[in-house]
Amino acid sequence: MSELVPEPRQKPVVPMKPVGINANLLGYIGIDTIIEQMRKKTMKTGFDFNIMVVGQSGLGKSTLVNTLFKSQVSRKSSGWNREEKIPKTVEIKAIGHVIEEGGVKMKLTVIDTPGFGDQINNENCWEPIEKYINEQYEKFLKEEVNIARKKRIPDTRVHCCLYFISPTGHSLRPLDLEFMKHLSKVVNIIPVIAKADTMTLEEKTEFKQRVRKELEVNGIEFYPQKEFDEDLEDKTENDKIRQESMPFAVVGSDKEYQVNGKRVLGRKTPWGIIEVENLTHCEFALLRDFVIRTHLQDLKEVTHNIHYETYRAKRLNDNGGLPPMTVETEENHESNL
Amino acid sequence: MAAAEVARQGEGCRTVPLSGHVGFDSLPDQLVNKSVNHGFCFNILCVGETGLGKSTLMDTLFNTKFEGDPASHSQPGVQLKSNTYDLQESNVNLKLTIVSTVGFGDQINKEDSYKPIVEFIDAQFEAYLQEELKIRRVLHNYHDTRIHACLYFIAPTGHSLKSLDLVTMKKLDSKVNIIPIIAKSDAISKSELTKFKIKITSELVSNGVQIYQFPTDDESVAEINGTMNAHLPFAVIGSTEELKIGNKMMKARQYPWGTVQVENEAHCDFVKLREMLIRVNMEDLREQTHTRHYELYRRCKLEEMGFKDTDPDSKPFSLQETYEAKRNEFLGELQKKEEAMRQMFVQRVKEKEAELKEAEKELHEKFDRLKKLHQDEKKKLEDKKKSLDDEVNAFKQRKTAAELLQSQAQQAGGSQTLKRDKERKNFF
Question: What ranges does the record give for the region Disordered, renumbered to this chain (chain A) (predicted)?
């Protein structure tokens, strides 16, 4: 038992070691209804999700995002006409849509990065992207530090970054390595092998192995990061994904064809129809399940609890600490005087 | 490379239809699973006079015997006792903290009785605020000790609220969700109870006390919450004893004139309280505490420390700027104080120095005077000595002269005597 004697300047209550009570429960209390209560509340407030796609043009980024969310959320660029100038810098285009399924409303923002890797000299082309990501953290931090805060701070931080790897079949390009090295520290990167229908099964496995090896050698931690596994269950599950499935070799398509009497999304070629959602053809279904059906909330949480906190700590350290911590030393000074 | 351009389509996002099953309707489940793995916290504060059955009611609500001995009436002041328990039901882990007031209402002078309670609640908010303002913080693993619900136990007098109750509730209503309950309500009859409830509600309203209203914005619970709002304050009875009634074991209290069943809605409102507190609104209570009471506390605390929000289009991170300004101001003040002290010190030193110089001068003068005196004395003495010497000399001279004269006289006399003697002799 802890007795709290109130003093003029009371220290916060230190929670004592909790007494575990399980065997004494004599009847149903109803604590587990909190799950339902929580679920209802979250459904009412809705969710935000911000996904960024990075890769050279022509790798099928927009098509893949449209296939992932089964709607036209990303406008495909039809290449640069003579009249349009090739952008000299990497542009960042963020477009938001609201999609609803099963009573769950989600505000999905797709952040496109046209111009990445398209110039002749691609030095530092990740800088605008890094800047954008940090700007979103800054915006959130500013809102959080306000005295009168909004009830729900709008979340524009990038939760997930899909990095498209060109299916050369050899290894990662230096640009890929540089980009991922710089950005794996500020955002969750999921490397994806685009246009995987250009590789045979053996080529695919070999390429994936080589890519994984190179990422490991260069110390690039892609999502799910090893250090953030919370318990054994997570670790085994994520290990399996990290070591076997990632990077996902995907094919995107928004056209439907008739295969075996069913309508499926696919790509029609003279030698057959590649079914997007068929696991034997490509790993799109794995990517979709991974990102949307199982790890979406985790992506958001890692962004909030780890990447955002790292940014915040760095930002506050650079400015010499946040007020109340040093105001207390000021108070001590005053009393000493 | 020049800065990137951000083209963002604004808040008016269109709704896009889906052409197939995507699968993000599992999002609430993902969120809930994560929370379940994490565990939940719930903190209840029981405020009420000694002997109103607070501990028994907690035992009854959670179907378990929490530790504790009943408190005595002779406490010198109001104290708060806090206990934390880990409860588990199916797959939900709940960290339940029950805080009870000990000695509330027992003192002769009850003016300050509410203070320890308010301080305790503020201390929990302060702890959370400190954690939130740290540079390296672990908010998602933080054990939340803020009070989510305050059960205020009203004594079953049947008349009206005591002034102590009104004062305490008024102080607490902006800091915590208050749910007033009438304790030991088996002491009141049905008709008296309705009158009592009406009196209490009207008193609360006329004194502007904001008690917790069950939320009515969500359709699924709006109806039940609405009806429950009308039944506040709940009249409850607590009992951990089980008695055989009919052919079931029920929690009840046995009197010679009958048995009061705790879970019978006709007998008391215990079931309603349990429904509202735990089964329907636990999450809402937590949310209200965080978004309303905590934010209010935070805003007041930060404003008290002198921080203001600047307009949205001014420099970013206004808190930092204000802090810098305050810091400079403070340092300036420090410097001024230091200067003032130094001036004073210098002045004092000067004064003391002058004093000392004065004293020195005086001493010198005295010394001179004394020396002069001494010399005078010496001179006088010497003069006297000289005169004495002179006298002595003169005396010696006279003495010698006199002796000489005498000896001469003697000689002459001697010779005379001789002569005389000769003459005498010759005479003979």
Answer: 315-337
Phi, psi of B96 (to 5 degrees): -100, 125
User: What is the percent of chain B with per-residue pLDDT over 70, rounded to a whole number?
Assistant: 88
d(CA A93, CA A53): 10
Phi/psi at A89 (5° precision): -125, 170
Phi, psi angles (nearest 5°) of residue B167: -60, -45
Confidence of residue B345 (pLDDT cuts 50, 70, 90): very high
- Taking contacts as CB-CB distances below 8 angstroms, the residues of chain A near B327 are 326, 330
> In this complex, which of A27, A128, A337 lies closest to B3 when CB atoms are compared?
A128
Closest to B130 in 3D by CA, of B138, B97, A330: B138
* Residue A259, CB-side half-sphere exposure with 13 Å CA sphere: 15
Q: Is the pLDDT of residue A333 over 60?
A: no
How big is the A-B interface in CB pairs under 8 Å? 317
B90-117 pLDDT, tens digit per residue, is 888 888 888 988 888 888 888 888 888 9
B11 vs A327: CA distance, rounded Å: 39
pLDDT digits (tens, 9 = 90+) for A144-177: 888 888 888 888 899 999 999 988 878 888 888 8
d(C-alpha B73, C-alpha A325), whole Å: 41
pLDDT above 90 for A47: no
Please name the residues in contact with B23: beta carbons below 8 A apart, sequence gap of 6 or more.
A101, A288, A289, A292, A293
> Does this model's pTM top 0.80?
no
B271 touches chain A (CB under 8 A): no
DSSP letters spanning B144-173: -----EEEEEEP--SS---HHHHHHHHHHT
Contact A15 B94 (CB under 8 A): no
Instruction: For residue A104, report the phi and psi dihedrals to the nearest 5 degrees.
Output: -100, 125
Q: Cβ contacts (< 8 Å) between B316 and chain A: which residues?
A: 138, 142
The reply to whether residue B13 touches residue A30, judged by beta carbons under 8 angstroms, is: no
**DSSP per residue, A83-105:** SSPPPSS--EEEEEEEEEETTEE
Candidates A39, A131, A327; nearest CB to B305: A327
Name the closest residue on chain A to residue B69, using Cα atoms: A1
What's the gap in Å between the CA of A213 and the closest CA on chain B? 31
How far apart are alpha carbons B369 and B363 in whole angstroms? 10
Asked if B30 and A297 come within 8 Å (Cβ–Cβ), the reply is: yes
B130 touches chain A (CB under 8 A): yes
Query: Which of B9, B22, B61, B214 is the best mutation test for A, with the most CBs of A within 10 A?
Result: B22
Residue in A with minimal Cα distance to B40: A34
Q: Which residues pair with A272 in a beta bridge?
A: A269
Other beta carbons within 10 Å of B399: 12
Report the relative pairing of strands A256-259 and A262-269 from DSSP bridges: antiparallel
pLDDT of residue B378: 93
CB contact under 8 A, A10 and B123: yes
Question: Min CA distance, A94 vs chain B (Å)?
Answer: 5
Q: What does pLDDT average to over chain A?
A: 78
Pick from B6, B89, B317: which is nearest to A94 by CB? B6
- CB distance B25 to B32 below 8 Å: no
Residue-wise pLDDT for A232-268, tens only, equals: 777 788 888 887 888 888 888 888 888 888 888 888 8
Interface membership of B290 toward A (CB under 8 Å): no
**How far is residue A104 from each of residues A47, A73, A303, measured CA to CA in Å?**
8, 17, 21
Q: With an 8 Å Cβ cutoff, are B123 and A11 in contact?
A: yes
Are B119 and A323 in contact (CB < 8 Å)?
Answer: no
- For residues B294 and B144, the answer to whether their CB atoms sit within 8 Å is no
| Cα gap A26→A39, rounded to integer Å | 27
